[in-house]
Write a structure and sequence with these properties.
This protein is mainly alpha-helical. It has eight helices and no strands. Helix 1 (3-24) crosses helix 3 and helix 1 (3-24) packs antiparallel against helix 6 (76-111).
Length: 179
């Protein structure tokens, strides 16, 4: 089984978990209604495709992407490990191709058939650089910006109000301000 197949299996397992929980909680969710779209977003995210690229190249909505990424935040460790393997293989493959091309260029130069310029290797160097960046992102080496949704309970709210009232009373007693 290929790393990509293994990654897709893990993504489907995660979708099953989240979908079941959303169904139990009776929550409307893309995980319940369009599993293929969720799978696509998770796969693209796992291999290092940015949210902006998903919007422009794949026509996905930013809000949809954000909701999916928040729903599946607990699964990213597993998914990134598999995606890292895929990206690493792509990087090594491109590096190998670059070596072959360099050798061919070297052979043609020695025969006098080619005068090499910087432009001859530019596109491949860019592809190699992009593959390396993607492999680092997929393995979690690059910095990622993630949304941190903090939940505030009613008890937290009431404790904060109570603490604020106590501080106001303490200030009144100290005659610092007149309220």
């Amino acid at each position: 089984m290929s790393d990509k197949d293994e990654l897709l299996i893990k993504i489907n397992e995660a979708i099953n978990d989240v979908s079941m929980q959303k169904e139990i909680d009776k929550v409307k969710s893309l995980s319940r209604y369009d599993r293929e779209k969720v799978s696509k977003i998770l796969y693209l995210h796992s291999i290092g495709v940015s949210q902006t690229q998903m919007i422009k190249k794949y026509g996905l909505s930013r809000n949809t992407i954000l909701n999916v990424l928040v729903d599946y935040a607990d699964y990213f460790g597993q998914l990134k490990e598999l995606a890292g393997k895929i990206s690493a293989k792509n990087y090594v493959s491109i590096s190998s191709l670059e070596e072959d091309l360099i050798q061919n260029v070297r052979d043609r130069m020695e025969k006098g058939d080619l005068e090499v310029t910087f432009r001859d290797l530019k596109e491949l160097s860019i592809a190699k650089s992009n593959a390396f960046r993607e492999s680092m992102t997929a393995m979690g080496e690059a910095s990622n910006i993630t949304e941190d949704r903090q939940t505030v309970t009613q008890e937290d709210y009431e404790a904060t109000v109570k603490a604020a009232q106590a501080r106001l009373e303490a200030i009144k007693k100290a005659d610092i301000i007149d309220l």
